[in-house]
Amino acid sequence: MGEMRNTLRVLWLVLFSRTCCSHLTFPLKLFAGKFNSSVDLDLTPLQKKNATSGGLSLASDPTGQVNFLDMLGNLNGDSGRGYYIEMLIGTPPQTLNILVDTGSSNFAVAGARDPYISRFFNSSLSSTYWPSGKTVSVRYTQGSWVGELGTDLISITKGTISAITINIATILSSEGFFLPGVKWQGILGLAYPVLARPDSSVTPFFNSVVRQTGIPDIFSLQMCGAGVSGGSDADAARGSLIMGGIEPLLYQGSVWYTPVKEEWYYQVEILKLEVGNQNLNLDCKQYNADKAIVDSGTTLLRLPQDVFHAVVDAIVREALIQDFSDGFWTGTKLACWMKGETPWPFFPKISIYLRAMNASQSFSITILPQLYIQPIMEVGNALECYRFGISSSSSGLVIGATVMEGFYVIFDRALSRVGFALSTCAGSSGSPVSEIAGPFSALDVSSDCVSVPVLQEPVLWIISYALMGVCAIALLVLIILLLLPCRCRRGDDPGEITDASSLVRNRFK
Fold first, then answer.
1. What CA–CA distance (Å, rounded) separates 94 from 375?
2. Please, which residues have CB within 8 angstroms of residue 101's CB and are 6 or more apart in sequence?
3. How far apart are CA 142 and CA 400, in angstroms?
4. 101 has catalytic annotation
């Protein structure tokens, strides 16, 4: 029935579409899958050389540095639903694809059957799995899951991790987490311990790798999905996750660093946005409302609502096509052009200015339309359809895959900074789709665009429990006050506190 409906839609579009350079739109729901997903919503280091007494070994080049060449191409893209890496879990090893996510801190894998995944980790078959007896639940921007904590041995098939003991959550139930057609069966959170669930005592994956192998506390990520159609399995996106350092083959030019403002997410500071070289002229605090983070597990560039509307208005003013449906901007409709008529020349570039390590300076990362006007599917032999790769957010600004696919991104945890350089795979038809420039003066911008101290989620829990304690004490006092008058009703002494004069009684009249 679904195929028949799609066929009828194709016939309608072909019969009634104009053959000029205009576009068509139709509901995004016609394409199976959810593209605005963020699992809210990044892995591999060193290679085995000779076995050591501790069971861990790293591959090095003759100079003593880590050899990253075996890590190249260890990621695969999943049609707009993230990048994943193949991992071996347990003894004997069970092979699973794990989503790389810099926006969370738990390592979790499917531990039971799910209609949307092809396989799961059966902990009862692993002789090295040790359950902790603790339950854990995690909620993301889209989706949530509940599971059990334990530990087991982890290896990476294309990389340099072998037999590392890692905290692992086996997902026993989930809602909106595993999506139709996904090719991954778990998630690898690479953020800081403070985001780990149920609390920061659960050591995240990368922290365990650094501790057990001694590699530098840094990893870098290249995501090569620019211009790749979300509906194409034949031409799937690729990428590389380098653990322990930086691979020069994956970038060109200089690396620009911005400080990590808070070590929970990879929170950074945005100074301004430009659309087509036109400054949005918003207060910089609006860009950082709630938080601004770098998150490989988020598909789109997500903007606070007022920033999102300002960006859309600026694009509409700058674009050479004015008759777009509102549904295109909100993500409910696709825009379609005749094949061979790419829409990218009609749209402006978008620049994000980040504070540099020198606080008085900034640098810009720029994405061209090829990154945010994204090919999704073909309709028959006539049309190519695209989505808008930017969405509004109620939980802060998120630099997701829409932006990251244009850059080689370095997560230098040792020096508490995030680096950006032009990616060697960020091109479309031989033309670059991203730019980076600087330094620029930041003296005309507030010295601190993140004005409100970040209340990290564990701190919020403490405050919540404290408030619950205060309420419990207040309730106990009220109960005691309600009971006291009953105990004091003896005789007719006018000086006694009777039920008629009780403050509690009067208060509730």
1. 34
2. 39, 41, 42, 82, 187, 188, 189, 190, 191, 295, 296, 297
3. 14
4. yes
CA–CA separation, 434 vs 422, rounded Å?
7
Encoded amino acid at 472, one letter = A
Where in 297-339 does DSSP place strands (E)? 301-304, 333-338
- Burial letters 212-251, b for 16+ CB under 10 A, else e: bbebebbbbbbbbbbbbbbeeeeeebbbbbbbbbbbeebb
- Take residue 189 and report the two structure tokens written for it: 């959170």
What angle (nearest 5°) sits at the alpha carbon of residue 11, between those of residues 8 and 15? Answer: 145
Task: Report d(CA 430, CA 433) in Å as an integer.
Answer: 9
Contact 292, 307 (CB under 8 A): no
Helix/strand number for the chain, H first, E second: 9, 28
- Of 40, 101, 114, 152, catalytic: 101
Which residue, among 488, 505, 484, has the nearest Cα to 496 in the 3D structure? 488
Task: Give the model confidence (pLDDT) of 128-152 as tens digits.
Answer: 999 999 999 999 878 899 999 999 9
Asked if 499 is an active-site residue, the reply is no
DSSP state of 47: P
Global confidence as pTM? 0.78
Q: How many CB atoms lie within 10 A of CB 434?
A: 22
Q: What's the CA gap between 329 and 312, in Å, rounded? A: 7
Residue pair 457/291 in contact (Cβ under 8 Å)? The answer is: no
CB-side neighbour CA atoms (13 Å) of 32: 11
| Radius of gyration, alpha carbons of the chain | 27
Give the tens place of pLDDT for each residue, 376-392.
887 877 888 999 999 99
CA 76 to CA 94: how far, in whole Å? 19
The catalytic residue among 40, 78, 114, 295 is: 295
Helix (H) or strand (E) holding 391: strand 390-393
Place of tokens 């031409």: 235
